[in-house]
Structures are given as C-alpha cells and as structure tokens.
C-alpha cells in the first residue's frame, strides 16, 4: 500500500485454530511497532469481543471498533448485547451489509427470487420462507414513504440513529444510488410511534 502505517488494523474474523490471546497480542504488536494507530476486530460475537477487550485492556492496546453484519432484518448485533457492550467500553460498531444484499430496497417488494445471493450471516432470515420477508419489506416501505424516505434510506437511518454505530459500509456501482443513500443522514430521528411500529414488524 506504500504506507508507513494504517489508522486501524482489523482482525477480519476469529480463527478457531488460534487462541484469542495470540490474536490480541499480534494486534498489540502492530501498534507498538508503529504500523497501526488503532486495532479493530470483525465478525467477533459478544463473548469473543468481551474476551478480546479484556486482553486489550491488559495490554493497553487502543481498541476502537468491531465490524459486524447488521441491518434492520438482522439485528443480532443488538439482540445479543454486542452493541450495548461496545458502547459500555467506548468502542464503536461498523455495520456491513446494512441493506441486506439489497433486500432493504424497493427492488424486492413483489418477491424474492429463489437464487437470491443472501449472505451467510443473513441466511436465517429465510427460515420462514421468503414470502414472510416480502411482507416485512412492504410494511417497512410504507413507513419509509410516510417519513419521506426510500426504504434503503430508512434502513440506513435506523442503524445510524445509534451512537454506537460509527459507520455503515454501503456498496454500490451506481453514483445516483450512492447519493440517494447518503441522503439517509438528512433524517436520523424516529418518533416513538415509528420505533414501536418498526419493532413490531421486525419481531
């Protein structure tokens, strides 16, 4: 990369064959060598994150973020306590897959094809069949329209309303879509009634 150092160096996922302490020590060494300013982890669940934070605290390693699959439909980062834990330890969560491979757009309001390329972290969403997901999408889209947003914009705003979510990773090959998604930041506030309605849909 022709860089003297990077701002954040991530451990992309836990390796079942390597003890978490060894991973934490390796990340700590990168900071001490001046190759990274901060360290991050990715795809570490709540318990794995707690273990890593314990080691980082012991080593005085500047840990700052966990990159994790998180979207309106897949809220495991919230329900497992990961987001709360990160907030309690002054760290953030970077959400990848915030639109669930495009499910959280108007594209699939009429149905989801059988060969839809769902990410492994979201596969369980289809456990009750795709028709149930389509019903959720349409219900969410009606709320988005009432807010003056697209479904994608509301889905991004739903994540960004949390102070722990420091960023969302959005991928697009279309500049117009990128600009439209960025407009999600124009309205990150949800009324109590909207929160109740959305929460009921996502149950």
From TrEMBL:
<feature type="domain" description="NADP-dependent oxidoreductase">
    <location>
        <begin position="1"/>
        <end position="202"/>
    </location>
</feature>
<protein>
    <submittedName>
        <fullName>L-glyceraldehyde 3-phosphate reductase</fullName>
        <ecNumber>1.1.1.-</ecNumber>
    </submittedName>
</protein>
<dbReference type="InterPro" id="IPR050523">
    <property type="entry name" value="AKR_Detox_Biosynth"/>
</dbReference>
<dbReference type="InterPro" id="IPR036812">
    <property type="entry name" value="NAD(P)_OxRdtase_dom_sf"/>
</dbReference>
<dbReference type="Pfam" id="PF00248">
    <property type="entry name" value="Aldo_ket_red"/>
</dbReference>
<dbReference type="InterPro" id="IPR023210">
    <property type="entry name" value="NADP_OxRdtase_dom"/>
</dbReference>
<dbReference type="GO" id="GO:0016491">
    <property type="term" value="F:oxidoreductase activity"/>
</dbReference>
<dbReference type="GO" id="GO:0005829">
    <property type="term" value="C:cytosol"/>
</dbReference>
<keyword id="KW-0560">Oxidoreductase</keyword>
